[in-house]
Fold:
Amino acid sequence: MMIELHIDYIKNVNYALLHNHIPVCSSIELANVGEEDLLDISVSIGGRFVQEQRSAIYSRIDRGSTVRISDVAVLPKADALLELSERVISSFTVQIYSGEEVLLSREYDLELMAFDQWLGTQILPQCLASFVVPNQPAVGRMVVKASALLKQMTGASAFVEYQDGDPNTVVEQVSAIFAALHQEGIIYRAVPASYEAIGQRITLADQVLESHQGNCIELTLLMASVLEAVGINSGVVIMSGHAFLGVWLSEVCYRQSICDDASFLEKACSEGISEMLVLECTDLTKDYASFEHAQEIARQHLKRDNEFQMFIDIARCRLEGIISLPTRLSEGGTWKLAPEEAPKHTACAIEATHRTRYDLDRAYDDKTEVNKLDIWERKLLDFSLRNNFLNLSVRSRAIQFISFDVASIEDYLQENTEYCIHPIPEGVVRVDREERLLRSSMISSLEPLILNDITRQKLLHTYYAEDETQLILKNIYRHARTTREETGANPLYLAIGLLRWYEKKNSPRARYAPLLLLPVDLIYKRGRYYIRKRDEEISLNITLIEYIRQTYGIRIKGIDPLPRDEHGVDVPLIFAQVRDALREQSKWDVEEECVLGAFSFNKYLMWHDIHNHREELLSHPVVASLVSGSLQWQPQPLQTNLAEEDKHLTPGSIALPVPVDSSQLSAVLEAGRGSSFILYGPPGTGKSQTITNLIANALYQGRRVLFVAEKMAALSVVQSRLEKIGLDPFCLELHSNKVTKKHVLEQLSKALHAAKIREPEEYDTIAQKLYERRTLLIQYMESLHEDREGAKLSLYECISRYESYEVEPLEVALNEQLAHLDGGFITHCEELLGSKLPAVLNVAGQPSEHPLVGQWPTLACIQEPQTLARLLDEGVTLAGRIQRARILLTEIFGADLEDSERSLRLGIDLLSEISASPLMHSSVAAIAFDEHQIAQLRSSWEHLKYRDELRAMLTADCREEFLEIDALSLLQEWKAIEDSWFLPRFFASRSYLKKMRFYSEKLQAQTVAGYLERVLEYQKEVKHCAGESGGIHQLLGRSLSTTELGSLLDYLPRLVKAVEAFAEGLQLSVSAIRESIKPAFTEELKHQLRGLDALSGEWSQYIKEAEPWVSYQFPSDSSFSVALSSCFSRWQTHQGLVGKWYSWIQLRGELSSQGLDIVIREVEAKRVDAAQLMQAFFKGLYRALAEQKIAQSELLCTFEGELFDQQVQRYKELTAEFQELSKKMLYARLSNQLPHVYEDIDNSSEIGRLNRNIANGGRGTSIRQLLDDIPNLLPRLCPCMLMSPMSVAQYIDLGAEKFDLVVFDEASQMPTSEAVGAIARGNALIVVGDPKQMPPTSFFSTNSVEEEEESIDDLESILQDCQALSLPSLQLNWHYRSRHESLIAFSNHEYYDGELITFPSVDDQATKVRFIHIKGTYDKGKTRQNKAEAEAIVHEVCRRLRDDSLRGESLGIVAFSAAQQNLIEDTLTERMARDTSLQELADQLYEPIFIKNLENVQGDERDVILFSIGYGADATGQVSMNFGPLNKAGGERRLNVAVSRARCEMLVFSTMTSDQIDLRRTKAKGVEGLKHFLEYAERQTLVRRPQPDTDSADRIIAEQIANRLQKAGYPAMTQLGRSNFKVNLAVALPSAPDCYRLGILIDGEAYRRTQTTRDREVVQPSVLGSLDWEVMRVWSPDWFRQPDLVIERILARLKSLPERPLKQQSTAVSSPFAITEADLIAEPISSSEALEYPATDSYTSTSLEDFVREVVAREQPITYSLLSKRVAAFKSFARVSSTITGIVDALLPMFFAVSDRDGRTLWLTQKDGEQWKGYRPNTAIAKRSIEEIPSVELMEVLLEVVKQNVSIAPDAATLIAAKRMGFSRRGANVDAAFSYALEQLQQSGLLLENEGKLILSR
Structure:
């Protein structure tokens, strides 16, 4: 047929459908399936009960197309449906027209229902709401009736529906309506079979009220109709075969018209939520009805969720358009029942129980702040269904109680009520045991009894009979006890309330999880089991809360913290909150039941650690820091300067029983100091070796160590290493929670009975020798590489730099600057000599040949050339004058006078001085040098000067004539007058004075005599001067005035000085000069000197004035005056060249300022080519510095390389020897602290208990209890414990004494949540791991924190969390695993930035990483395997197994996916099954073949690793960028682990090449790393990172040696290596150039950077030796002084080597620990020993004083009472009387006495008392009473007993001590004495009492 018709319609139709406008037909479609288009198509529909319709015309329907007809529908005739009273089967016809041609006609069945028929639950069941008819008159009458009843109940008749928001108001209204309907006396009519099938007839409300009959659904609809009439929302609950009513107590409705989740209704009805009640409406038909009973019956129905079908919400139906049926009026129809007298019901109880509704929204804000501890708890939770916190199975370890009121049970238990557990009450029918959880409400008949027993009798009933109850409780009791003993955690809880939940919506099986967990104890007494609350808080089941949050996104608010009531927690409110959160979860609900059980899960103990010990955890600084996210204490800084440590660290202060490099040593030292830090351990860097040393040293220092590893493999490696060094007896391994008691007891027994050995006698001697030898080697290194005189260059730098130049050196003399040069100075000199000097010489030319040589212009001169021109003009003028001056000097001094600036200056100065003479006479020159004549002249001058002074004075007052008078006569006359009588004197004086006044008015009687005396003196001087003037005239040719003579005397010294200066300056004779100048004292000289006398000053002034612009230097090899003239003339001519000349002058000054005068001299002398000048200078300089440093060093000045090699060899031997001694020393220390098991050991002591457990196999004692019993003994037996995080939580109490050190291995794989418990059990923390290796195995698990809590979430591992805290860190850098650098080069480059120190191989020219390209495809869509790669790998494995030369290498296979791993494993297994010889060969390998994937290969290594990439192109050639785990976060870390597993070789099998990985399509770091790895495997290339060349100095010497060796025919390579470590020179033999044989190490920069002597002289050569190198040192002082001899030694060594290595050397350098017979100690050394009491019958003293002294000396310590007894015997007294005590008291001052129990104890001296050790037991010969024994002896024996028992009760200790002292019985005196001694020991701190046990203080 060309056309197809598709019609979708409802075959069963009733009036309700039509009334609610529900379309009968949902779609009509026409499909043109013919080959041609259809034209003018229309559709018609019609039938008897269906309206006739025809569609519009569709002009064209293309072939193959479909159209939907929307303008016609199946419309039943409303009138016909209204009239139907019975079901009618009819049909309708659909016709398709093309124009008017009928193309298709088809008839369809249609079943029409009666007006009052409901279509049932299969077809639009919500139409049932149409049968709720609130508007019928009969319903209105019921509202009025109910109103009257409501007024009876409440006092108010109004139906207020939901207006006041109180659910109890709604309940009262519903109750009144229920009572009103009950009064109608309706009787129950049976429901037709399968009423819910199609076509159920419904009697409407008015008919039910009229007929007084109804079934369950009709009564429910009646009640719903009345409720709707008063505005209360309701709904119909449909069960299998039954229906009842649901009433909303809040003005809400369901989100859909149909609800298929019974649990939703249960939750809405539950206490606290109270949003709904359910009502059994058939109770309306009972004679006596109860509103509460009707509700209870409905609730019971609701619990049968397997019968529940749906809930039809009437209010929601109304919102969706479902309206009530109209009231149908009949005009004489037969369907209406005749009215009958209806029976009346007797009574209806309408009291409504008060309902509680919590304000759940308000609690949403009461959330406790989440911290890290909460996060950790969550992460430890177990979400598997094995966990009974999620999936409770009520079996042997759990028992359910019948509990109608769980809130009351919680309240009573919180009040410390003790409940007795009883079986199910007798007479009760046994419940269905198939149910996983029983509902108490299902046996409601027991409710009164059970509630009475709960509240009054304090009984809890189970669902089981007596025997079964007792059996289950016994199992629970025993399991809880065992768990508590073994783990320290009590798993017993009472689960209050359980969540019924389903994994999926369609899961048929419900699961149950406890909601509230009340910690309880189960006690057995009087034949019954009781439960009571433990002293812990009730808690929420956090596992459940987290599980539903993470899995289903359900967040239960308002329960964190748990809401409280007056007794404990508010259980109903909590249940309400949970139910409220679960509204949308179909079938989920809270079961209000109680279950007693042992609740636990895989990581429960670690969770318990955090949950129950928060305060203890937060008191630990590291844990507190992890919680807060910042350091809460100040870690001590790490001492990273190992070079300094190497100088001072004595070998005996640290234990290093296995080889150690510097990075490992740093970690060991810091651990020994008690530091907390991170230790990064990249692959192959010796983490386990470091941990072994670290643990060994900690034990050596007396510390306790807890070593924690998640994986047993990591722990086993360390345990094996500890065993090899002899520490296995002292290390207790408790890794797995499955560890057996037998295993533990064997380890403890091994420790307890471990052999005890002596400390090696030679230990200290060898340690000292090793220290001295190390000090010598350090001194050499420092002498070579450090400055000893303050210079900035080391000797080695000087030597290497000296060797770097290939020119002849200059002979450099070290001045102050050169002797202390630094790097900046050298750089500056290199710039000056290397670039600036050649450039200047190129511009200025050769300085010695330049026309301006001798002229030194300044910058100012260059800037002002006119000044230079002026100065040169003036210079030329001055030069001319100087020439004239030279002529004059020649005339005076002769032609022999040198022509120099000095002679000119001095000559002119002398002539100027001569010309300045006040007297020009030839005798002046002679007089100047004649002291006698000068003295005579000076005397004459002094008389002349005195004469003149007198004259001047007299003439100042008197006339000139006064000087000529006869002064003597006049003076005599005056004296005579003065001597005469008064009167004559008067007259005579008047006459005399009158005469004298002629000369002066000042001549009075008082002054005249004085004046006359002065005149007389003057006249004498005149006479004297006149006498000497003749001599002066004769000497000087004329007389001289006083002034002239004075001037001459002043001049003569100047002349002498000038002559002497001239003579001295020119080294001439003064006498000769004196004779030469005599003729010069002429007036003519003054004429000749005119213009020249100031020449010297002018020249000086000229030079001074020129100084800012220019200075001059004139040739010293020619006459000055001539040179001066010549130079100024030349300079004036070439003054235009001054700019270029200045560049040299400037550079010359700079060179001179730097102390480089030798360079200036060499340049100006033209002795060295300018191009080589710098090298020649520096080579000379470095040679001079090196020679100076060698000469100044006592060690280096006598250094001989061959002798020093012997020192190094001896150091290596001592290191190895001391390493073995360290093992013995460590073992001796640990073994000698072990207690010795004596026969009288107390059974209650820790040793006694341990011995008993060892003997009986620990019967009745758990491992936890076993360890808890020996808290003091265990640290002595096993100071090191090796555990997993789980076993730490299981076996070690958090409150026990902390370990000194906690060490985590593989910390990158350990989540912080699992680590904190172990961290808190120690003081210091060391976190060992590599953040660039595998993350925790749960890394990709579901996130356990909410989005708002991500800021406080911890990182993926404890390692990263400690990193985030900035905890101090160290890193292991030396890589040992790979025997070829190519194997680790990629990882080192890609992930460690080249920081790993790796060692080159002798075959370094080859690579050990090979890429093998395989032809094949990756089966992407199906198996996800690569068969071609698997086949290729298996083939390679088989080839290697069959090849004898390859079979010695172990094999490992790493696949990049689990699927590929499985394929390879299956393929290899099949191949070996076919060829059993392959399996035999594989079994012979020293390591088994492993096949692993990226996820589980960490920790494994093999000689050869075969990689299967697996991924690649599929069959279509497409390469997906999905590479499994590499695409995820941390993928690059997985790759890093995988590519670092190989020791000897790595083969990469891949069908894909690196070019096929397109990084544009992925951002995953792991994929990027894979591409780079494949590139490396294919091409052996890595992207080079720029690195500073720190070893260039080493290369210089190495290249020089290499050049010499290559000339001798030996291939050589310098600086061989791919890491920071290099073999300075690798040499091969001519016959085998592809394999290096000799590795030469130079003591250069790398030698200096190596931090420790051990690294330099032991580790590096040893590792190279293990890689088949022959190693030789070249000492740079040797090479500097005697390079030929060094070459001879190297050649001799090369000639002695075989062509190939003889055998592969082992990396092991230490042998396993062994104890010899000579090492053993027969008996342990104890702190005190029993001593023999001295003889008391052989005293020889005769005097009392001597006797007493002898007694005390022999028997000390001796008590006062015993000494008195001895004195009494000496004095022959029968007893000790007061006389005796008086004697003793008098002698006491002679001794040292201390107070004792009841007296005193005496020693001879105080020193004797301080040194006393031991005790002296009573024997048959020597007996003392307890009063006669000093307390010090009792204290010593008590100490010994406690030490030997480790921990012992005080009573037991005194009992054993008394027996050892010889007291077979203890009396009151003995007890008192020992009690006193014990008290003294405790007061002194020697003994401590802990939990009733005595222990030694530490």
